[in-house]
Design goal:
The chain is of the alpha+beta class. It is built from four helices and eight strands; from the N terminus they run ββααββββββαα. An eight-stranded antiparallel beta sheet has the order 1-2-8-7-6-5-4-3. A hairpin with an 8-residue loop joins β6 and β7. About 20% of the residues are buried. The model has no long low-confidence stretch (mean pLDDT about 95).
């Protein structure tokens, strides 16, 4: 059975998501940082979205770009820069939604807390404005995020078992 994902709005600009994974932090971290693994979970496939490409240079100052395509739609890119990479415990990076790059970047902080071989992930999105945060929520982000986190859980369970 997949774990429950919680989402809360904090202040005017932040979205915080919590999820528990039945795998060590090392495996969850690798799933977040290896482009070949990101390609296996980052697009919400249950919603008809596929991953087109994943490129990542995971180091402070390194850049990434992920491209997805909704069924019957145009490709959409997301890109940004890694600001902090602390193996197995923390990743901080910017994210720009390319079709609306003029709205600014979101700063994402992923914190991994391991206990007894299990990992709690705290995923924070700090938006440049309340307008951007509300737009993200209105876009259907929550259902897509829940789907991708379910896919991430299936992947880390399989990696942990291997």
């Amino acid at each position: 059975m997949l774990n429950h994902t919680t989402l809360e709005l904090v202040g005017d600009r932040e979205i915080v998501i919590y999820r528990h994974f039945a795998a060590p932090a090392r495996i969850v971290f690798e799933a977040y940082t290896r482009a070949d693994l990101v390609a296996r979970w980052w697009a919400p496939t249950a919603l008809g979205v596929e991953i087109v490409s994943t490129e990542a240079d995971v180091r402070e100052g390194g850049r990434y770009r992920y491209v997805i395509r909704p069924r019957g739609g145009e490709s959409i890119g997301f890109n940004g820069e890694y600001r902090e990479v602390t193996p197995y415990s923390r990743i901080v990076y910017s994210q720009v939604y390319e079709p609306m790059a003029d709205l600014g970047e979101v700063v994402i902080t992923v914190t991994l807390i391991e206990a007894a071989g299990q990992t709690e992930v705290q995923f924070s999105e700090m938006c440049p404005s309340v307008h951007v945060r509300d737009g993200i929520i209105a876009s259907g982000m929550e259902s897509g995020m829940r789907n991708t986190f379910d896919q991430l859980e299936e992947l880390v369970i399989a990696l942990a078992a291997a």
